[in-house]
Amino acid sequence: MLNEILLVFIPMFFTVDPIGILPVFASLTQGLGPQEKREIIFQSLVTASLVAVGFIFLGKGIFHFLGITMGDFMVAGGFILFCLAMVDLTFQGKTRRGVSSELGAVPIGTPLIVGPAVLTISLMLVSVHGFAITLIALFLNIAIVGIVFTFSDSLMRLLGSSGSRALSKVMMLLLAAIGVMMVRRGVIEIMSGIHAF
Q1: Which positions ≥6 away from 59 have C-beta within 8 Å?
Q2: CA 33 – CA 30 distance, rounded (Å)
Q3: Whether pLDDT at 166 is above 80
Q4: What is Dmax (Cα atoms) for the chain?
Q5: What pLDDT was estimated at residue 61?
Q6: Cα(46)–Cα(96) distance, rounded to whole angstroms?
Q7: Cα(69)–Cα(162) distance, rounded to whole angstroms?
Q8: What are the tens digits of pLDDT across the range 73-93?
Q9: Phi, psi at residue 195, to the nearest 5°?
Q10: Are 95 and 196 in contact (CB under 8 A)?
Q11: Strands (E), the chain
Q12: Fewer CB within 10 Å: N-end or C-end of the chain?
């Protein structure tokens, strides 16, 4: 079971990208006191968890209603992951996301922690590894984000802005490869469905 959790945890870790979103969190919360930061971190983690879990449990029902197969979703989801990774590799970091008054919920909780890429890969991992394993890996990743955010000041001093950006680019390159893998698996599943008829 530990190996299976690790298999789900790793691609989700690259998708969540806690180090990559660290500079954005640091810039959005700059000048705030420790108590305010703690409240924002708590709100962001709760928001991210609720959005991800809701999508995981309701996503398949929506697909069934619309007549979408998992192969279709793997191809579309893999393509989205690849495109999101390419955008992050092309642009300077993730600072292009907007800011609202409710920092914890939007944009930090969603789409910063849990955005389209995390929702896409979560639903695909559920189809392969099941709800329990995917939820464990999801909550572990969200917990890591909470730790990174809690020690954001120290980590930013340690990594520096350039070091954080470089590490984020490596993670995005791996995410692009995962996207290609998802497309390949989706095509195989669609083709196997066609041969079954």
Answers
A1: 119, 123, 126
A2: 9
A3: no
A4: 63
A5: 85
A6: 23
A7: 42
A8: 778 877 877 887 787 777 654
A9: -65, -20
A10: no
A11: none
A12: C
With beta carbons less than 8 A apart as the criterion, state whether 124 and 77 touch. Answer: yes
Q: How many CB atoms lie within 10 A of CB 183?
A: 18
Q: What distance in Å separates the CA atoms of residue 86 and residue 4, rounded to the nearest whole number?
A: 28
At 178, list the tokens. 């995962």
Length of the chain as a residue count = 197
First to last CA, the chain: 35
pLDDT higher at 45 or 98 = 45
Handedness of CA 12, 18, 19, 24 (dihedral sign): positive
- Separation CA 155–CA 178 (nearest Å): 27
Does pLDDT of 115 surpass 60? yes
Tokens of 81: 């992951």
pLDDT mean over 143-170? 84
Structure token pair of residue 73: 């979703």
Instruction: Using alpha carbons, select from 137, 103, 124 the residue that is nearest to residue 31.
Output: 103
Q: Which two tokens stand for residue 168?
A: 């984020």
Q: What is the pTM of this model?
A: 0.72
Between the alpha carbon of residue 136 and those of residues 6, 104, 169, 172, the distances in Å are: 10, 22, 26, 23
Cα distances from 173 to residues 30, 84, 184, in angstroms, run 29, 10, 17
